[in-house]
Amino acid sequence: MKSSECHGFYKWSIDERLRFLQEFSGLTDEEIALLRKEGGLSLDRAERMIENVVGFMPIPLGIAVNFLINNKDYLIPMAIEEPSVVAAASNAARMARPSGGFWACSTDPIMIAQIQAVGIKDPHFAKVSVLSSKDEILRLANEQDPVLVSLGGGARDLDCKVLNTPVGKMLVTELYVDCRDAMGANTVNTMAEAVAPLIERITGGRVYLRILSNLATRRLARAKVTVSKEAVGGEDVVDGIVSAYEFAAADPYRCATHNKGIMNGIIAVALATGNDTRALEAGAHAYAARSGHYSPLTVWEKNPRGDLSGSIELPIAVGIVGGATHAHPIAKIALKILGVKSARELAEVMAAVGLAQNLAALRALAAEGIQRGHMSLHARNIAIMAGATGDLVDKVAERMVSERKVRLDRARELLRELGGQPA
Ligand code: MEV
């Protein structure tokens, strides 16, 4: 089995990284050429994805290394504009490896579709009527997607609730649909629209909305990790991370940033694989607030040996078939790099990446602070802008970081001192 473990990946040239990637993931020469082509998407194809196309907005695609999840090595494609995120995920994954990496699991890929019926005089009576017609409603829903049903998915169950609102009582029917390897938005929306007239007939009410819920509480992914106190930098850092978690648990202002850090990783993988990033954000934050108190998506504890235990749980509604996962050539390559065989496996990987991202952020915050990591990348960019090449990039950058003077004029001076030629 190939290992995703890699030291100093960030120092390799793009050619070296692509060679490693090709070897690990079995990408073809054409796929490698497409990665090199800035954006990898043609105008023609873009026109078929959205409306009013005028061009592209390319985002860098990086590879996080060192990930071991459920005993399997992964290279993680991440599309993101923010520096440090990919390096941080790789670092956290490296810390987790000696204790066995990440362990992840997930529920069946069940999406919820909501059908809102209004104007019902006796909504509680209507609720029982809908529940008694479950078989008929599910049958009608499943007639909309025989392919999904043949793959073992489809509408599995339903429930009903009466909401008390300022404009009167509403009866909301929720369809639970197993979407298998699709994210499933189209399928469940089609099913919800198809059963609406039947719900109107059963309830005597009028249906307005028929749409999925992004609060996908039946499509959860979970991951856990143990990191030894040695790997994390000592028991003091373990305590710092636990205390950072408790801070987030106690204060929504900190918690928003804590969860943002988690989503840095999850959204970067979602974007790389052509998944709906807004759906994931909406679901994650609504899930974090489900108790009425906005809470962290991860938990960090100190185990009896003084090591760090981390866990994460959130809805991750993603697909590996359909939509942009299929239409976008880079998304297809990203899925090939991941080598995931199901939407559930992708969700599990993403949960592990989110947990890793949070570990990296909290470790940096609890130890040296976040700016050092940011600064080294920034310093490398400034060194390159000053004209440094080869080894001199790192030498100039390291000096600027240690002096805490990351500036173009200083980079030029250092470059001259080290025998280079400023640009
Ligand atoms: C920056 O994009 C993310 C962090 O702010 C997350 C955190 O504070 O936990 C570093």
Name the CATH class of the largest domain. Alpha Beta
Task: Report the bound ligands by name, code or SMILES.
Answer: (R)-mevalonate
Q: What's the architecture of the largest domain in CATH terms?
A: Alpha-Beta Complex
Overall strand count: 10
Compute the gyration radius: what is it? Answer: 25 Å
What class, by secondary structure content?
alpha+beta
Mean pLDDT: 95
> What is the percentage of strand-forming residues?
15-25%
- State the shape: globular
| CATH fold call of the largest domain | 3-hydroxy-3-methylglutaryl-coenzyme A Reductase, Chain A, domain 2
Helix count, per DSSP?
18
Give the terminus-to-terminus CA distance. Answer: 45 Å
In the predicted model, the low-confidence regions spanning at least 5 consecutive residues are: none
The strands making up the biggest β-sheet line up spatially as 3-8-10-9
Helix content: 40-55%
- Looking at CATH, the homologous superfamily of the largest domain is 3-hydroxy-3-methylglutaryl-coenzyme A Reductase, Chain A, domain 2
